[in-house]
Design goal:
Blueprint: H1 2-53, H2 56-68, H3 70-85, H4 95-109
Helix pairs in contact: 1-3, 2-3, 2-4, 3-4
């Protein structure tokens, strides 16, 4: 019966460790939920700030850019928010100003590629 009690104790220890792991996992899930909630709040704050910064036409253009090139739109949004926070913006940004920002970001992120042709020197002796 001692072996049987030992097995019960081991089983209880395993159950306790699994319960603790499950609770720890649930704690991790709640932490992930908190991080998700914090990310949503930051996104909402950024969207409200962009609504105050941009005119309606500029906002529409930025949204259409975001559909095609989300990374570029994200960069422009970050640039606009940083400019607003540092006081570089006077009034709202209209569509021509946004076009200028988009062009500037495009120039900075444009991939420079070059193709090099190397020709082999074939020794074709026409004897």
């Amino acid at each position: 019966t001692w072996e049987f009690n030992m097995a019960d104790e081991d089983l209880e220890a395993i159950r306790a460790s699994r319960l603790q792991a499950m609770q720890g996992g649930a704690g991790g899930a709640s932490q992930a939920g908190q991080q998700e909630e914090q990310r949503k709040q930051m996104q909402e704050a950024k969207n409200s700030m962009l609504a105050a910064i941009l005119t309606q036409a500029a906002r529409a253009r930025l949204n259409s850019v975001a559909v095609v090139k989300p990374d570029k739109a994200q960069m422009v949004e970050s640039l606009l928010v940083n400019m607003y926070r540092s006081g570089q913006l006077q009034g709202q940004v209209d569509e021509p100003q946004l076009k200028g920002l988009l062009e500037r970001v495009s120039e900075q992120t444009q991939k420079k590629s070059s193709i090099n042709f190397r020709r082999r020197d074939d020794d074709d002796d026409d004897d």
